[in-house]
Amino acid sequence: MTKPYLLCGVDEAGRGPWAGPVCAGAVILHPDHPIAGLNDSKKLTEKKRLRLETEIQEKALAWGLGWASPEEIDQLNIRQATHLAMRRAIAAMKVSPDEIQIDGNDVPLDLPCRASAIIKGDGSVAEISAASILAKTARDRLMVELDETYPGYGFSGHKGYGVKLHAEALATLGPCPVHRMSFKPVALAAQRTA
């Protein structure tokens, strides 16, 4: 019996926000258990993402999540922290893929097999779509929890992104421990509220 070719899709959520970690997902889909409706997580409703999240976790051959904290983002820069989260997600799978395809145009170093970047891969490669869904649902869930820990910033609504409400809260409250101090709007707010 021939061993199936294991393609791992990788994507991240939370590269652009001012607060919270960046999360990466890695997924190897099961060849005998296809999942209908996979797409770029940003093109799906929250309800559909949550339904697909459960189905991916149940049917995938392997899946993993990797995180990089706001402190790691500040120490490394967002690009390197995203690469770190991706390596952690791949390592969390406990299955070695034959090939890795990553959404976007950037491939981390030190991956366990050959890897390539696919622009708009989250809408065209099922494994990357699945990874994007797992990363987004996990990160969104964490940002809702962080809203309870750090009230007043509106994390549950905007998930840490730089919207007007978030900018106003930063100006009033100053940054909290999960803000990315290396991001310019946060650094400026910290100076003003110091």
Automatic annotation (TrEMBL):
This is Ribonuclease HII. It catalyses: Endonucleolytic cleavage to 5'-phosphomonoester. The keyword Electron transport does not apply. Transmembrane segments: none annotated. A divalent metal cation binds at residues 11-12, 103. GO terms for molecular function: RNA-DNA hybrid ribonuclease activity. It is found in: Cytoplasm. Its main location: cytoplasm. It comes from the Bacteria. Belongs to the RNase HII family. Manganese or magnesium. Binds 1 divalent metal ion per monomer in the absence of substrate. May bind a second metal ion after substrate binding. SUPFAM superfamilies: Ribonuclease H-like (SSF53098). Endonuclease that specifically degrades the RNA of RNA-DNA hybrids. It is an enzyme of class 3 (hydrolase). Its cofactor is Mn(2+); Mg(2+). Pfam families: RNase_HII (PF01351). InterPro entries: RNase_HII, RNase_HII/HIII, RNase_HII/HIII_dom, RNaseH-like_sf, RNaseH_sf. Residues 5-194 form the RNase H type-2 domain. Its EC number is 3.1.26.4.
